[in-house]
Amino acid sequence: MTAFTAANAVAFRRLNRYDFDFAGTGAFPDVSIMMMRGVPLWAWAAAAGLYVAAAAAATELAWHRGLDALTDAGTHRLDLYAASLRSELGRYEILPALAACRGSIKVLLEAPRTARRALLPAVNYYLEAINKYAGSVAVNVIDLDGKVIESSNWNQPVSFVGTNVAYRPYFADSITSGSDRFFGIETNTGQPGLYFASAVRGKQKVLGATTVKISVDQLETAWRVPNEAAMVVDDNRVVVISTVPAWKFTALASMPAKRQQQIEASRQYAGGKVETLGYERLDDWRNGVWFARLPDWSHPGRERRYLVMSHSAPPAGDAIMLVLDLAGARRQQQLAFSFVIGAFLIALLYGLYAVQRRRTIAECLRAQDALQSANDRLEATVQQRTAALVRAIDACVMNFGTSIGIPLDGQHLPLATHVQQLQDIAKQLVQTQLRRWPSLATRQVRKTNSSNCCSLNFTGIACQH
């Protein structure tokens, strides 16, 4: 416990007086206007401003740190997706060229149509074997008219044999340029897939083409992760691979009418009109990272803001995009805001406790001043009354001695001796009374001080007698 010295008490009284004195004039302002719970209003305003600034700075810092963490994790994941896509599709890209080098396929395409039936079994078994080994959907052989004359699924209920694909861009491009890739929806089955095509060349001319169709369902399944979405966009800005089924075969931007007609003619996306996704690019965050507004995959019919990043994605399409939910960054903001609130509540409680303790100390010091003043007044009153009583007794004794004394040769009669004894007894009584009155006053002051000290010790303040 801290003991207050006289100097500390005087300084505290001065400080307390200046807190309530208005401009040193001795006039007291309206406390209900200038003070609130013993704290000046400017202090409350400063604390509120500091709280707002700290909360804004903390939430902004947490937001940026959350976005940085999302960006770093998304970049790493996007690299993995791009690598897996290249690895998964790269092993199929060479299959059409290998099939085009097969002698039995060249002989089939060079033979007249009436002589092809005898050559089909050998080609069928070869196509079945290569399709099973590679794990693709189908391997086809196409003549120059665009007709599928042989397929690995020749013996399946839904076979591609006899289908004409002359309208498909990958057929025409492979005949003219040697190879091509194409993402589209199969007209026979309605199943989307990626097509790789390669021209079959004879000694002097192109005989036809071979194609390999693969499915991307396994990729979409492997890429499904909570709070994010991955998609591959082709050169038409159409989503061809997506972990959100509702986004597939929708365009990120509106398409020109001429381009829309070409897509409908090729029946690339099942021959229908390509609808827009509702994608809107917003502010940029970093190089290759930006904010975008997209349909909410967890609440259909709503839109949300996401963090989007992109990576080139050959040979499947133009780019692979990763869409990240901002819920993680928002949670960090909420945690930072909660921390600021907790810190300011603790500081506020401590400040109110300090103000209350200061007011208690001031009240105790004022009580001590009042007791000391009362004690001084009591002692002065006792001294005044004692002096008056002594003077009155002396006057009475002298008057009594004078009235009954009989001087003889400079001495009193025997009766004067009794008068002197009476005067001594009166003085002793006065001295005893003088000793008793200060003692009673002192005990009264000590009793009052003891009760106050008990109150101070209860609030954590030590008293010194």
Q: Estimate what percentage of residues fall within beta strands.
A: 15-25%
Question: Number of domains in the coordinates?
Answer: 3
The CATH topology name of the largest domain reads Beta-Lactamase
Q: How many helices in DSSP terms?
A: 11
Average pLDDT confidence is 77
Quantity of strands, as a count: 13
Described by the principal axes of the CA atoms, the overall outline is rod-shaped
Provide an overview of this structure.
This protein has about 475 residues and is of the alpha+beta class. The protein has 3 domains: about 65-90 and about 220-325, PAS domain (Beta-Lactamase); about 95-215, Beta-Lactamase; about 330-460. Helix content is about 55%, strand content about 15%. The chain contains 11 helices and 13 strands. A hairpin with a 2-residue loop joins strand 10 and strand 11 (about 290-295). Helix 3 packs antiparallel against helix 10. The two termini are about 15 Å apart. Mean pLDDT is about 75; it is low at about 1-35, about 405-415 and about 445-465.
